[in-house]
Amino acid sequence: MYITSMTKDNSAAYSRLWFSIILLLLSINLHAQEKTMTNIYDFKIKTINGEETTLEQYKGKVMLIVNVASKCGYTPQYDGLEELYKKYKDQGLVVLGFPCNQFGSQEPGSETEIQNFCRVNFGVTFPMFSKLNVNGDETHPLYVHLKSEQPGILGSESIKWNFTKFLVDKEGKVIERFGSSTKPISLEDEIEKLLK
Known about the structure:
It contains five helices and six strands. A hairpin with a 5-residue loop joins β5 and β6 (about 175-180). By secondary structure, the chain is an alpha+beta fold. It has helices spanning about 1-35, 75-90, 110-120, 140-150, 190-195; strands spanning about 45, 50-55, 60-70, 95-100, 165-170, 175-180. The chain folds into two domains: about 1-35; about 40-195, 3-Layer(aba) Sandwich (Glutaredoxin). The longest helix has about 35 residues, at about 1-35. The strands form two sheets. The protein has a four-stranded mixed sheet with strand order 4-3-5-6. The chain has a two-stranded antiparallel ribbon with strand order 1-2.
């Protein structure tokens, strides 16, 4: 009788243990699925005119996503970004500019001022968006995604400065990250590969 009781107790304990393990595995699997379900096209963003949108309209295109600023030593890169856009837009490239004021307060103006500055000084025609944060507690979810998909040097996710560039393929996969000093024109080979 005593042995039977012990066996039943052990059996119940093993059942509970296996049940806990199965629940844990299911939880891990669901978490992994959630991570893979993160889709770059779903993040809500605002155009420079304040209209809420997503990147869904760029599905099937190669995207070059850049945090930009008007009063930075790298600001002349607007020329190179516009050149890339004009050269490859008909083949499926879109350059997306996201103003950010987190680096030396080099983007202090309003969205209207930023838009006018870009058009007048650099003839920018590629899509521009409202200011956002790329680092810190208020990092925009789009940039949380970009940085986790393509960390920087030594695995650091932090954006180091203005004009950091993320190259995204036609399926929405973040392919590469380039630092501020990387000139837009030097990305041509990478872009051409993704456009094929």
